[in-house]
Amino acid sequence: MTPLERYESLVDDFEAFRQACERPLPSVVRVNTIKATVDRATDALDAEGIAHEPTDWHPGVFRLPNDSPGRNWPHAHGWIHGQEEVSNLPARVLDPQPGERVWDTCAAPGSKTTQLAALMDDRGLLVGNDNNLGRLSALRHNAERLGVTNLVVTNQDARNFSLKPLGENAADDRGVDAFDRVLVDAPCSCEGTIRKNPDAFDTWSLDHVHSVAGVQKGILRRAIQATRPGGTVVYSTCTFAPEENEAVLDHVLDEEDCRLVDFETPLDGVPGVTEWQDEAYDPSVEKALRIYPHHNDTGGFFCAKLEVGA
Ligand SMILES: C[S@@+](CC[C@H](N)C(=O)[O-])C[C@H]1O[C@@H](n2cnc3c(N)ncnc32)[C@H](O)[C@@H]1O
C-alpha cells in the first residue's frame, strides 16, 4: 500500500485526489503589501512580460502560468513573494493585528512570517523562531528583501521556548510575556507537498509520522501556554496523516486550556475527521479544515484555529 492509498477511506473523491497528486503544482505569488500595492506589483509583472492570473479568492494572490516566482525584478524588489496558495491560509486565519505581539513557532524559511508582518502592517512585535539555524538564514534573507522591520528572530526548540531575558514581568515561569496570537506551522511528514516534490514519499515511514507527531504535540502545547487568555493559536501542517493533525488537536484539548473554534475559509475543503483506524477523537476536531489537492488545484493542507481559555 502506498502512503496515499492509506487515505482511500478518508478522501471524498479518491480518484480525483490521486490524479491531482500526480499533476505539477501551479506557480503562485502573493503581493507583499509592506512594499507594494496589487496594482504596482501587477504593473511590474506586465512590464516584464510575465503572465499572471488572479486567484478567485484574493486579488493579492495570483498564479504565474509560465514562470517560476523567483527570477524577476518584482521579486528582487520584494514586491512579490512565491508562496503556495494553501500556504497563504494559516496567517489569514490567525488574523494578526497591527501592534499585537505574535509568535511564529516554526518560521523558516519565512513565507508565513513575512505574510504575518504584512498583515500586521509591519507594526507590533513578531517573533520568528525556528530550531534550524541554517533555515533561519533564509528567513532573514526573505525578511530583508520584503522590508520587514517588526521581526525578532530566535533559534530555539519551540517545545521549550523561553524569552527569559525579557521575562521580569513574565506571565509564565519560562519568561514568556503572553502573546496575543501564535502560529504553529508544524514540521510534518509533508505528504501534501507531493505535487511540488515528487520524491516526498521516498523517505516516508509510519515511524516518522509517529515521531513527528510527538514533536507537534510538544510545540502546540508550548504555543498554547505562551498565549494570553482569550488569545488565538493556529495549527497547520502540509500533510494528510490524522496522527499529525486531528490526533495532535485531540491531545492538546485534553492537556491544555483551549478549544477549537470555527473560522471562515475562502478555499474549499472538508471538516477534520473524528475517527481514524482504531482511534476516536474529540468531536470538535471537525472544526478543523482538510484541503486535498483536487479541491482547489493546490497542495494538501490542514488548518485549525484554537482559542486559549480565559
Ligand atoms: C513547515 S516548516 C515551516 C515553514 C514556514 N512556516 C514557512 O511558511 O516558510 C517547519 C519548520 O519547523 C522547524 N522545526 C522543526 N522542529 C522544530 C522545533 N522543535 N522547534 C522549532 N522549530 C522546529 C523546521 O526547521 C522547519 O523550518
UniProtKB/TrEMBL annotation:
Alphabetically ordered keywords of this record: Methyltransferase, RNA-binding, S-adenosyl-L-methionine, Transferase
Residues binding S-adenosyl-L-methionine, per UniProt: C106, A107, A108, P109, G110, S111, K112, D130, D157, D185
A Pfam family reported for this protein in Swiss-Prot or TrEMBL: Methyltr_RsmB-F
Active site positions, chain numbering: C238
Keyword tRNA processing recorded: no
Domain annotation SAM-dependent MTase RsmB/NOP-type: ranges: 17-309
Classification via SUPFAM superfamilies: S-adenosyl-L-methionine-dependent methyltransferases
One annotated GO molecular function: tRNA (cytidine-5-)-methyltransferase activity
Biological process (GO), any one: tRNA methylation
Alphabetical list of PANTHER family matching this protein: NOP2 YEAST -RELATED NOL1/NOP2/FMU SUN DOMAIN-CONTAINING, TRNA (CYTOSINE(48)-C(5))-METHYLTRANSFERASE
Family of this protein: Belongs to the class I-like SAM-binding methyltransferase superfamily. RsmB/NOP family.
Name of the protein in question: NOL1/NOP2/sun family putative RNA methylase
Origin species: Haloplanus vescus
